[in-house]
Amino acid sequence: MEYSRKLLAMFLAGHPNHQLVFMRLWQIEPTYLTDAFRDFYEENPLNISRILDVAQDLKVSQSEPQGAHDDYKWDQILENLLEVRPFTFALDVASLASRREYLNLDKWLADNVTTHGAEFLRAMVAFLEVKMDSEKVARMSDPAIDSRTLSLSPHTITIFLRTLRNK
Q: φ and ψ at 86, to 5 degrees?
């Protein structure tokens, strides 16, 4: 199993044949792939961008003719990523997917607050604290260092705060 994780990490890093490997894994065992994405994220939260890129590649590589069926596949892939726990991973996927206009973040956050209640609200606050701390460390360091997480856009932060205020 350890060997397969190392191979998967190699493909996540950008191997030329990554699309074929991920497409096949998705067809055979989607949970294994989403767990691998979560592990890749936990190694470095900046990997979230690569994870969403690979998920988008899955949509493209699975497509027969372009059309509504592609949107269903993408929705299914994205939905599976948004179900991965811990919530921090799903919140980062949702934030980036929203920025790329793949997801209505307002609706997704509201739906999850309704489904998961206080647990999800606490996860949202913790997520924002991690993002804020990372930004603070990056901006206040001398010499400057890169942020440890992907920055949230002001629009995304506004959506989070509005959701928290309304609950």
A: -75, 165
Cα separation, 83 vs 89, in Å, equals 9
Structure tokens at 167: 């609950």
Count Cβ atoms below 10 Å from residue 146 Cβ, excluding itself. 9
Cα–Cα dist 89/155, whole Å = 19
Q: The whole model's pTM is what? A: 0.84
Helix (H) or strand (E) holding 82, with range, is helix 68-82
Residues 71-91 have a mean pLDDT of 84
Distances (CA, A) of 34 to 23, 37, 104, 155, 161: 12, 5, 21, 27, 28
Between helix 87-99 and helix 105-116 the angle, nearest 10°, is 160
